[in-house]
Design a protein that fits this description.
The chain has 500 residues and is α/β, with parallel strands linked by helices. Helices cover 38% and strands 21% of the residues. The chain contains 14 helices and 22 strands. The chain starts with a helix and ends with a strand. The relative contact order is 0.13.
């Protein structure tokens, strides 16, 4: 792990005021545990520079942490109320706002996104604690009339128990808070494995949880390297103590976790890959559609799960949309996330850059035209790639079937509503979809026919705590956020009372 001197130097270099946020060990049952014999390096994807060494948590420590989480759950459940948990979550929300700039800086330097994007993430991440602070006291169930006159059926929602949380690198704060807020509001204890690439943001939240008053053992956090990640995922899935897994990541890993969980028949909620269509109809407000597409497709350089992946533009407005979209993209600034003018940062690693190149080359080889960009931006760093707009992309191109997860914008012509509906739904994935139209009959008709869990009609922005976030098909199941978010962390119990 990094020494206190290194941590202080790190804080001074990046202007982080609250040095206590910088943690490099595991949070286990209320204690910070350091594995000095085995560490992994966290790097800045914008420069490739080493940032800090973080402890690679030992498997035996994680196993004990899971047991401690069960003990904490059993102890806390008998004496906690939803109102009390709500106060703790509200304090957590306030602490995130108090440390807003520091948390945003941490996010940018380990993830690469622009500081503006990171500030947006911290706002989004903290909102889940505010939301679930208000939901915690309101976990309602029903009194159901019985068919028998001398019986009553009473239901209650009870916390499921220990929850295993596995999160990705692209939203290192928000993907934790969206799950943790709901789990704790329900009364569950949690064990969390953050992404190897971005543990610093997660561990900062661990520190703030302590400050907010999380009871000992109700939240444990285990940073591990890439190799041990596989072991921890399997451990969470096969542990009889862990009653639920909440995972955000790729569909392939989700399928593996589902198989590994089968022996213990866990409750699961998965938010997996996407292949979101973005459709501009002939009657759309083209300027609004361009702005929606810029944010929806190129936010964080295209590295979000609900990014538009395929842009279908009606032939009547195709040329206008393409020209205006390229003009807007030309205003962007590629660079290191902490530079004040930067709008878009690097990709997370070289593998992501390689996939972007593969998708561009495939589309061009099949007849697509490069309207903007198209090349690596190696002068900025090995993980940088130009924002790229491709025109006249054929329907046979790989970008129609595979999630790029990068700054490639394929423009595809269509001529009718029936045609584009078939194209949009021609995928195993179903996380998000977007379309722009002034026809309100079409908004209802087409929105209901799009096969995905979330639809943006005349908007490219879906993320907020009030939204039931989740997909269908290969994009997973379960919903996070919203009034439904706690349900995935509870079990419904019924008591039938006779002799009345």
């Amino acid at each position: 792990m990094s020494s206190s001197t290194e941590i202080k130097a790190f804080a001074d270099k990046y202007g982080i005021k609250n040095v206590n946020l910088i943690r490099t060990g595991a949070l286990v049952n209320g204690e910070w545990v350091y594995n000095t014999d085995d560490v992994f390096s966290v790097t800045d994807p914008g420069t490739g520079d080493h940032l800090l060494h973080v402890s690679n948590t030992k498997i035996e420590v994680i196993e004990q942490g899971i047991k401690d989480a069960q003990t904490a759950f059993e102890s806390y459940l008998s004496k906690s109320t939803g109102r009390e948990r709500g106060r703790i979550l509200r304090k957590f929300y306030d602490l995130m706002l108090e440390n807003f700039n520091d948390l945003a800086i941490l996010c940018t330097i380990e993830n690469g996104k622009s500081l503006t994007d990171s500030k947006g993430e911290i706002t989004y991440a903290s909102s889940f604690f505010e939301w679930f602070a208000e939901e915690a006291p309101r976990i309602y169930a029903d009194n159901i009339p019985s068919a028998a006159s001398n019986k009553r059926i009473i239901t209650s929602k009870q916390p499921i128990g220990v929850v295993g949380i596995l999160t990705p690198w692209n939203f290192p704060a928000a993907m934790i808070t969206r799950k943790l807020g709901a789990a704790f509001a329900a009364g569950c204890s949690t064990v969390i494995k953050p992404a190897t690439e971005t543990p610093l943001s997660a561990l900062a939240l661990g520190y703030l949880a302590e400050e907010a008053g999380f009871p000992k053992g109700m939240l444990s956090m285990f940073p591990v390297d890439q190799k041990r990640t596989i072991q921890v995922g399997k451990l969470f899935c096969e542990s009889p103590i862990v009653k639920k897994i909440s995972f955000t990541g790729s569909t392939g890993v989700g399928k593996l976790l589902m198989q590994q969980s089968s022996s213990t028949l866990k409750k699961l909620s998965f938010e997996l890959g996407g292949n979101a269509p973005f459709i501009v109809f002939e009657d759309a407000d083209v300027d609004a559609a361009v702005q929606g597409a810029i944010g929806c497709k190129l936010r964080q350089s295209g590295q979000t799960c609900i990014c538009a992946n395929r842009l279908y533009i009606h032939e009547e407005v195709y040329e206008e949309f393409a020209a205006k979209f390229v003009a807007e993209v030309s205003k962007t600034v590629l660079g290191h996330g902490l530079e004040p003018d930067t709008t878009h940062g690097p990709l997370i690693h070289e593998r992501a850059v390689a996939k972007v190149q593969e998708h561009i080359q495939d589309a061009v080889s099949k007849g697509a035209k490069v309207l903007y960009g198209g090349n690596r931006a190696s002068h900025l760093g090995e993980n940088f790639h130009e924002l790229t707009v491709l025109g006249d992309v054929p329907k046979s191109a790989r970008v129609n079937k595979e999630e790029t997860f990068g700054p490639v914008v394929p423009l595809i012509r269509f001529s009718s509503e029936e045609e584009v509906l078939q194209l949009a739904n021609d995928t195993e994935y179903g996380l998000a979809g977007y379309f722009f139209s002034r026809d309100y009959a079409r908004i209802f008709r087409f929105g209901e026919k799009l096969q995905c869990g979330m639809v943006g009609a005349n908007t490219g922005a879906l993320g907020e705590a009030a939204l039931p976030f989740g997909g269908i098909g290969w994009s997973g199941f379960g919903r996070e956020g919203s009034k439904y978010g706690i349900d995935d962390y509870t079990v419904l119990k019924s008591i039938v009372i006779g002799g009345i």
